[in-house]
Amino acid sequence: MAAGQVQPLADGQVGEICLAGPHVARQYWGDGEGAMIAHLQVDGVPYIRTGDLGFRWQRELYVVGRVKELIIVGGRNLHPHDLEDTALRTEAGVAACAVGVEPDLYGQLSHMPAAEQREHVVLLLEVDQRAQPEAWSRAIAAVRAGVADEHALALDAVWLLKRGSIETTSSGKVRRAAMRARLAAGDLRPLCCWHAQPGEARVEAALAQLAQA
Fold first, then answer.
1. How are beta strands 192-195 and 157-162 bridged, if at all?
2. CA-to-CA distance for 76 and 58, rounded, in angstroms?
3. CA 110/CA 92 separation, integer angstroms
4. Whole-angstrom Cα distance, residue 110 to residue 115?
5. What digits encode the pLDDT tens for the residues 74-121?
6. Which of 138, 123, 142 is nearest to 190 (CA)?
7. 105-108 contact pairs (CB < 8 A, 24+)
8. Are strands 120-127 and 157-162 parallel, antiparallel or unpaired?
9. How would you class 57 by CB atoms within 10 Å of its CB: exposed for 0-12, middle for 13-18, buried for 19 or more?
């Protein structure tokens, strides 16, 4: 389903995965522990909203992310794992985490007022803390350039963290919501960080989009 709509999408279109039918466990429909709170109806048929994003293609379902983790910049939907994969390919990082933050929080992180009332993209990257500061500066530049080239996106901030800083689940998935909460709480101590100057990200994004045109 597309955001704000209650009709199925065509094959190849990304939307929230909703489930209905006898295979859905009974407790998901209730109000107790484990219940899926968000329900909707399509043509009188009740569905539960999973919070997962995906698309159908040739009778197969592909999961591409989570609704709550989607980053929206300039009307574009950005999946954090795409940005993280680019960062890891560009620089020899151990782990990466991309999150979107609101202007007020970005202002707190950068110690300067946010120039634009939009979601700001912060990329966290684990690196070798034994490296020289010059290597950290090169890593930040490489990550920014890689994301701009592949996604026509100018990052608003890059934080380099020591190994083991980025939280993951037991199966190795990045806990982006937890990392964003730690950002908001001031619980992260970066080895090195870079923040775009007011208006800089907008100019870089425009140049990156022109390069891809």
1. antiparallel
2. 26
3. 25
4. 11
5. 888 899 999 999 999 987 678 999 999 998 888 888 887 766 788 999
6. 123
7. 105/183, 105/184, 106/156, 106/157, 108/184, 108/186
8. parallel
9. exposed
Distances (CA, A) of 16 to 119, 128, 130: 21, 37, 42
> Which amino acid is it at 148?
A
What are the DSSP calls for 25-52, one per residue? -GGGGSSSTT----EEEETTEEEEEEEE
**Is residue 164 within 8 Å of 185, Cβ to Cβ?**
no
Structure tokens at 63: 């999961």
pLDDT tens-digit profile of 156-205?
999 999 999 999 999 889 999 999 999 999 999 999 999 988 665 554 55
**Contact between residue 94 and residue 77 where contact means Cβ atoms under 8 Å apart:** no
